[in-house]
Amino acid sequence: MTRAVIRDSLPKEQRSVAVVDMSANLAGLEMTSPILTASGCAAAGRELDQFFDITELGAVVTKSIMLEPRSGRPTPRMAETPSGMLNSIGLQGPGIASFVERDLVWLHQRGARTVVSIAGDSVEDYAKLAKILRMHEGVDAIEVNISCPNVADRGKVFACEANSASAVVQAVRRNTDSRIPIFAKLSPDVTDITSIAIACVRAGADGLSVINTLLGMVIDTDTMKPALAGVTGGLSGPAIRPVAVRCVWQIRQALPDVPILGMGGIRTGLDALQFILAGANAVSVGTVVFNDPTAPMRVHRELSEALASKGFRSLAEAVSYAHRSGDEIIVNEAEAPSDGDGADQDLDQM
To answer: Which of 1, 111, 208, 274 is 20 to 30 A removed from 246 (C-alpha atoms)?
Structure first.
């Protein structure tokens, strides 16, 4: 029987100075922080770099890039909802040529770890994007966005079906340097997300990004019409966090060793801790940056403090901790070792 000691009552002054190893690893991508941006919420990081040093992040996850420039869906395309936001941007962007010339070069020169998110209308689009990125420096990982809900053709949401999801992942894997990890970004709008996750891993995904926004809709009660010109859009923000945590939990149970990048409604360090305990190896912070551009670094600090207060010496020790077996003994600080070396004994590795 493995015993774990959880220190719930560490004094505030000790929590603030407690040293926790916050390094994270996503399929070989070594990061000094487990906090990444979320695709679509910070473009390529230039705006956020005005508020904090983006090189201190685990990585910048870029807005999803397509082969050609795209204007996106018609306006209005954003609507506030209780505890969230509905967007129908429609993968607007400059196209891959402009991205690699302007943004990728800047990120590389800036010294930021970069996860490039890609999206396409066909399997061939994804293959071409991967082939182009292979020729350029500065790509630390690729996030394969197969799950954007705010596209006009729902048939192009590849993550809604195992065969189409695996076909895209396989095409990207074939055209990407084997040293570059690829993460499949999954949709919660499916009956069984674990079956899609398994299909993506079997097709060559090194890890999984969990989750994309949920398909939603708002009706304007004054006009009595849909609030968004595109009718439906992607719901993000705190409202979706319980769904995202559930998806991470289920996938971790089905795939114990596959790296997971968790996301969905993270606003605080304790929110991030839920994802880590559920099985995420790192997390992306998204919608909250519209209100608080410094949120990624604040979440990093709060997560570090939360881990210290629970007696964890490293982020890695907390990953999947909520899955521990029922026969493990949890005790409070009053029962913790008092031999003067408690910092090394607070948490036995599972």
So the answer is: 1
